[in-house]
Amino acid sequence: MSNSKPTVKMTRRGVLATGGAAVGARFLPKIAASTGGRRILTLYFDKTVGAMRAVERLVP
Predict the structure, then answer these.
(1) At the top level of its lineage, which domain of life is listed (predicted)?
(2) Alpha-carbon distance 37 to 39, whole Å?
(3) Cβ(52)–Cβ(59) below 8 Å
C-alpha cells in the first residue's frame, strides 16, 4: 500500500483561465446590472448532448 498523495499538475494556461474566470465572476454581474433591460432564460433539450441546456439573453 502506498501513502503517496496524487499530484495535480497546474499549467500556466490553467492558472490564467482560473484567474480570468474569478475576475469575470466578480465584475460581470455589476456590468450586467448597470446596463438595464430584462434577462430572459430559455431552457431547451439538446438532442446531440442528450441533456437540457439553458440560454440566457439580455433584452433592452
Answers:
(1) Bacteria
(2) 7
(3) no
Determine if residue 50 is left, alpha or beta; phi over 0 gives left, psi from -120 to 50 gives alpha, anything else beta.
Answer: left
Phi, psi of 33 (to 5 degrees): -70, -30
- Cell 480570468: give the residue: 20
Residue 7: C-alpha distances to residues 4, 14, 16, 21, 52 (Å): 9, 15, 19, 23, 34
Measured CA angle at 16 (ends 11, 20), to 5 deg: 150
CA 49 to chain centre: 18
pLDDT given for residue 59 in this prediction: 78
